[in-house]
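Re: duplicated header lines in exported C-alpha cells

Our pipeline writes sequence and C-alpha cells for each protein into one text file. With two proteins the header for the second block appears twice in some exports. Here is an export where it did not happen, for reference. First protein block:
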Amino acid sequence: MDKTIEVINEQLFAVWFLIGAALVFWMQAGFAMVEAGFTRAKNTGNIIMKNLMDFCIGTVMFILIGFGLLLGEDLVGFIGKPGFDIFTNYAEFDFSNFVFNLVFCATTATIVSGAMAERTKFLSYCIYSAIISALIYPIEAHWIWGGGWLSQIGFHDFAGSCAIHMVGGISALIGAKILGPRIGKFTKTADGKIKIGAFPGHNLAIGALGVFILWLGWYGFNGAAASSVEQLASIFVTTTIAPAIATIVCMIFTWVKYGYPDVSMCLNASLAGLVAITASCDVTDAAGAIVIGAVAGLLVVFGVWLLDYKLHIDDPVGAVAVHCMNGIWGTLAVGLFATPTAPEYAITDKAGDTIVGLFYGGGLELLKLQLIGFLSVAVWTTVTITITFLIIKKVIGIRVTAEEEITGLDATEHGLETAYAGFLTYGDRIGGAALAMAEDTDAVPVDDAIPVQVVENSGNTVSDVKISKLSIICRQSKFEELKNALNSVGVTGITVTQVLGCGAQKGQSKYYRGVEMDMNLLPKVKVEVIVSKVPVSDVVKAAKKALYTGKIGDGKIFVYDVENVIRVRTGEQGFDALQSEN
C-alpha cells in the first residue's frame, strides 16, 4: 500500500513538473505584455515579434547545442558534454527535463528585449537570442544545475535569481549601454547638464496584465522542482509574500518621494520581489521573505534612478533594476536567510555538511559561497555578452537609423502600419495610401448619390450673410456640457479634436518612473463650429456658461471671419452650404 502511494506521488509530481514548465512558458506572454505596455504603440508589433522569436529561436538552439552543454555529462565542472540524445537515444531521453530547462532558457533571453526596446535592429536581436540560448546561458547554468563546479561547492540558486535573472539583467545592462539611449531620452541643456526625458508607456493596462501573468507563472517557475507537498506549499508562501511586500514598500516610498503612488514602478516592484525570492524560495521562511521583498521594493526604485540619473543608460521597462539588481540581491540573500530545514532539502557544502544563512546562526560560510557564485557568473556573462554585442555591432550593426526609430519599428522592421489597426493611437503614423484606400472603398458613385437640387446664384450669396468660425479650447471634463449647450442654441455641426497646449497654467510637474516631466502641454479639447444663422453672441454666451469654473484653465474662445463654405457633394456655397437638408 505504501509503495502504491509512493508511486502515485511520484507520478503526480512528474505531472506537476510539466505543468510548471507550461506556466514558465506562459511567462513569455507576460514579458511580451509588460514590454509592450511600457513602450510606445509604434513599436508594439516589434516587441511581440522579439518575444515570440526568443522562444522559437531558443528552442532550435537548445536542441542543437544548449541542452547538451547544460545537462550533458559533466566535463571538468565547466560544461556538459554536447550530444544529440533527443535524436539518437529517443527511447530513454528525459523529455520532462528537456522541456523544463528549455522554457527557462527562453526566459533568460527575453529579459533583454525590454531594455533594448524601440531602437534595436530585429536581425541583430535574433542573432543575440541565438547566442545566449546556445552558449552563454547553458554553460553558466551547468555550473549551478548541471553538476558543475558551483553546485559541487554548495552554491544555492533554487530557481534562478542568479542563473536566469541576473544573467538576463547583466545582458540587458550591457546591451542597452552599447546600443545607446532612445532619441530624446538624454539631452544636454545650455548649461551642460543632462536633461532626462520620460517616455510613458502607451498601455498601462497591458503592462499590468503582463505582471499578473508573470506572477502566476512564477508559481511554476519557483515551485515546479519541489519534491514534496510541504516544500511546494512553502515555496508558494514565500513566492507570494516577497512580491507583495516589495510592492507595498515601493508604493509607500514613491508616494512619499513623488507625492503619488507610482503605478508603473509598483508593477516593477512586484516583479522585483519575485526575482529576489527565486534563489531562496525553498529555504527561506516568512520572516526572510518579508525582508527580501522589502529590500527589493526599494532596490528597484534605486535601480531605475541610478540608470537614469547617474549611468545615463536607457532601459524603457526597468529590466536592469528588476532582474540584474534584484537577481544579485536574491542570490546573496540565500547566504543571509537560508533556514535550518529537513535534511533532504538542506544546503550542504563540499564536505556534505549542512549550512544555513548568517541570520540563522550559520556564519559567513554560505554567504561566501553565494558571493563566489555571483561573481563568477557575473564575470562570465559580462565578458561573453560584451563580445557578442560588439561583434554584432561591427558586422551588421545593432541599432536602427534615427529616421526608423522616429517612425517606429513596427513600420520599418515589420511592414506594419500600426499594431492597432482600427484604433487611433497618439503619435503613430498612418500612411496616406491606407487612408486613400479606405476612402475609395466607401466612395459612392455619382449616379448612386443622393439626389439634390443644386441652386446656383441663390439669394444668399457669400457676401450677403456673415459666416463666423468659433474655436473653443476647453477642459476635457467640460466637453459634454459644452456640446449640450451648443445644441441648445441651435448649433448642430461641430468638429472635435483632442489637443495639447498651455496658457496661463504654464503646465505642471509630474513624475513618471521617478523622472520629472514638465507638463507644459496639457491635454485639452478643441471644438470648432461654423455659424451663420445662429448669432455668434449666442454661441459665445452658451459656451462661457458651460465652461466657467472661475479657475485658471477654463479655456478660450476664438472668433474668426470665414470667407466661404462649400458643400462638396452638392456644390452649395456660403449660407446655403451650412443649412440642414431635412
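Second protein block, exported in the same file:
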Amino acid sequence: MAASAATPDIIPVDEIKPGMQGYGLTVFAGSRVDTFSVRVLGVQQNARVQGSLVLVEVAGHGLELSSIAQGMSGSPVYLDGRFAGALAFGWEGALAPIGGVTPAGEMLALPQAPVTAQPRHAGGWDAGRLLSDAGREGARGLAAVFDGEGTTVAAPVVAGAAGAWPDVLDLGAELLAPLAAGGDVAAPSWLCRPASAAALAQGCSAPAPAVAPTLVPGAACAVSLVSGDADLGAIGTVSWVDGDRVLIFGHPLMQRGPVDLPLAAADIVTILPSRRISFKIGSPGPVVGAVHHDLRAGVAGRLGASAPVVPVDVRLTGAAPRSYHFDVADDAQLTPMLVFWSFYNALLAGSDDASRQSVTWRMETTWRLGGAAPRQLVQQGVVSGPGGAAALGADLMTPLALLMDNPFGPAHLDKVAISATIVPGRGEAAITALGASRRVEAGATRLPVTIELRDGEGRAHTLPVDVPLPSALPAGAYRVVAASAAEFFAFEAQRAPDRLQPERLADLWELLESERSPSTLVLTVFAADRPVMVGGRELAAAPGSVSRVVATGRQPADQALARPVARIAVPTGWALGGHAVRTLEVAPAVPAAGAGRRP
C-alpha cells in the first residue's frame, strides 16, 4: 500500500514557542481531509514522565463551537511546515477550543515492528465466576437443609417487572470501559453499525473494494473490534504514514502494549457539538492493516498487515428465522465481550420485547488446546423476563474468558456458533414440591418422582421422572433433592470446594463441561453420612479405614455437606428457581419365607 512520496521534517519540542501558528489535518465529513488552524499557547514541560504536552488553540470548521472532539485524536499538527505531533487531548466542558498535542518525537519513538505478544494472565483469575447469582442464593438455602436449618421446599422465585434492553452502543462502551484509557481526553469515538434488515439482505460481511483505500495523515481510521453484520470500533485520525508504517491517535486506546487488532478506514458523518465533550459520528470502512502496539504516545501499526479474527455465527429461530455473521478481534481480554456484544446485537434485531419473552440459547465453541486436535465445548440455557437478555453476558463471556486467559496453558478459540429461540411469554418456573415414596426396599433400581412446578404466568405443571438407584444401595436414611443444574453446581462448589480450583487445563475443561444450565432439572439422592475432606478435597472413594484414620488425627478433619449416591438430569423449557427436598428410607430386604432353615 503506497504512502505519500515524502514525509515531512520534524520540529523538536524545544523549538516550539508560544504564538507560533500552523495547521492541523482531520476529516470533518466523509473521507476528505481538511485543514484547521492552530496557534501555540505554550509547552507544558514534563507533563508526564518522559513526556511533554504542547497546548494549542484551534479554529475553523466550527471548532470554536464544538471545541476538540472525540475522533480528532491523532490529527497531525504542523508548525513551520514541519510535523509537530498529534492533537490528542481535550477537556470536558472547555469554554475555548484548547487541546493538547503529543510531540512528534514521542510518537516516532513507538515500536516500528510487531512483536509476538507473550501470553499474559490478567490476574484475579477465578473459576468461581461460573456461579450465577441465582445459583449462589439457591445453594445457600440448599446447604441449610443439610445443616438441619432449612425448610424442605424453597420459596418460589418468579417475579419481575417490565424492563428495557440497553442500546447496543451503550452496551459496547460499558463492556469496554474497564479496559479503555480514562480521563478528560479526546479519546477515540466509538462507532457502531447495528445488525439490521440491510445486513440481512447481504447475509455476510460487506465485500472489500477492488482497490483498498490508502490512509494518509489526517484521514479517518478505526481500530475495528467487530465487523460483518454489525460493526464496533474506535474512530480516530491518522497522524503519520511512512511507507507501510502508520501511527494513529496520539494517545493509547487501552494501553495494552503489544496487540494485534484490525485497522480500518472510516467515513465521518459529522461532528456533534456537546456541552460535555463533542464527538465525531462515523461509519467503518474496509480493513486496511493491523495495529501492533498500543502505548502512551499512540497506536502503531502496519498497512497491508492482517490481524486474526474469530468468526461468530448467530442463528435465531422462531417466528422470523434469521442468521448473522460477525468477525471479532482475537484477543484474550476483548473477545469474550465482543462475542456477547455481537449476539446481543442480533437479539435486538430479532425481538422488541424486554420483559414478556424467553430466550433458549446454545453456544458451541471450537478450541485448540496446545497442539491437540480441535475440541468443541457446548454451553446452553434459558433466560426470561426483564433484563434476561442482558444477563446472558455472564453466561456467554465467563467460559470464554476463563479459557482464553487461563494460567495453565494455551487455548485458542477457532470459532463460535450461537443459536437462540425467542418465544413470547415468561419462561420462568418455580419448583414447588417433590412427590415420591418415602420408603423403598434395598435392591430397588428406580424411584418414581413427580415434580410440581409453577410457571411465570401462575400455571401449575407436573413433571414425572424416574430416578435410577444403585442396586447395591445400603439400607438407611437418604434425601432426594430437586433443583436446577445451576443451583446444584453452586451447591457442589460449597460441598466440594476443590471443584472450583482446577490445577490443569484438563481440569478447567472438565469444569466447563459440567451441567449448570438453569433450565436443566437435576434430581439427586444424598446419603446421610458426610465424607471427610482433606485440603478441600473430598475422600469420597476412600476406604472406611482411611477415613477413620484421617478423622482421628491430631486436627479434626472437615466434612463435606453431603454425599450424592444417585443423580439424573432432565432438560426443561423453563428457567428454574427454588428447590424441593424429600426424605427417603431404604429398608433392609425382607428374606423370603423359610429362607435360612434346614429341612
